[in-house]
Amino acid sequence: MRAATLVEPGRFELKEVDAPEPGEGEVLIRVEGCGLCASNLGPWTGVAGVGYPLEPGAPGHEVYGTVAAVGPGVESVVPGDAVTALTYNGFAEYDVARADAVVRVPHGLAGGAVLGEPVACAVNVHRRAGVREGDTVVVIGVGFLGALLLRLVRRDAPARVVAVSRRRDSLAMAERMGADELLGYDDDVVGRVAALTEGRMADVVIEATGKQRPLELAAELTRVRGRLVIAGYHQDGPRSINLQLWNWRGIDVINAHERDPGIYARGMEEGVRLIADGTLPVDRLISHVYPLGEINRAFGMAVARPDGFFKAVLAPAGGQ
């Protein structure tokens, strides 16, 4: 099979390698697409602690495709089933996943870009955020994850949903996803949220960027006894926080990155249902699709994030 190998920061090589075989409790997936996650950008740019070359196909983990074969003991899926899965070497034509990390895709979605793993992240972050009707919610960062979170928060009909982003096209997407207020970083974000809440500030603030300044802003926007939810993936070094402010306001800080495999799988199952019923319009958020042979270009675009870029998918089945 063909697989992309990250041989050094900023450079994948496409290589022919042996296809994996499914072992006990494993599923072999013919990869139709693998999303490019923000967490993939750390190895691409060369964050500390990453050893090169990576395994063929790594660090791709947002896979959808078709079951090619199953290992002993697997009864939940059969060859030919359309599935989405959490895998670890998905920038390749085939990858193996644990059977309990594979979710069958409904017939009506088969052949589509059903990105179960990142949608599971949104579902699990939303659950951890504990949004209640009547809350004022601020989402900082409107990329793929932030846009999904806005839709999930809107579904709960809170009193007010505020989106904050540096990009105007992202704010336009936020409006389509249900945000009531659209603010850029150049706006008086703290003053505007204070005015909207009569000085109380927001009940729930979700930081979905993985960057230092938005994390600081998130604390400034959170009310006394409010909830600051960290959904962004902070991978490029330590962060500084105003712990005096966190202490004074008694903020509940929630690190919403889920690591329990069972909860992850349930998040994928719920996410697939929400895609199927139209709640989460994932197809609207996939802005770029590249064949596997253009993986370096895809990563370059994900770093640059030009206007109109939200989510890239690598499609091994798309040829060179």
Topology of this structure?
Elements: E1 2-8, E2 11-16, E3 26-35, H1 41-45, E4 62-70, E5 82-86, E6 94-98, E7 102-104, H2 116-129, E8 136-140, H3 144-155, E9 160-164, H4 168-176, E10 181-183, H5 189-196, E11 202-207, H6 212-221, E12 222-230, H7 243-249, E13 252-255, H8 261-276, H9 282-285, E14 288-291, H10 295-304, E15 312-315
Parallel strand pairs: 8-9, 8-11, 9-10, 11-12, 12-13, 14-15
Antiparallel strand pairs: 1-2, 3-4, 3-6, 3-15, 4-5, 5-7
Q: How would you describe the overall organization of this protein?
A:
The strands form 3 sheets. Strands 3, 4, 5, 6, 7, 14 and 15 form a 7-stranded mixed β-sheet that branches. This protein has a 6-stranded parallel β-sheet with strand order 10-9-8-11-12-13, with helices on both faces. A two-stranded antiparallel ribbon has the order 1-2. Helix content is 30%, strand content 27%. Strand 9, helix 4 and strand 10 form a beta-alpha-beta unit. It has 10 helices and 15 strands. With 320 residues, the protein is of the alpha/beta class. It has 2 domains: 147 residues, Medium-chain alcohol dehydrogenases, catalytic domain (Quinone Oxidoreductase, Chain A, domain 1, Alpha-Beta Complex), CATH 3.90.180.10; 137 residues, Rossmann fold, CATH 3.40.50.720. The radius of gyration is 20 Å and the shape is globular.
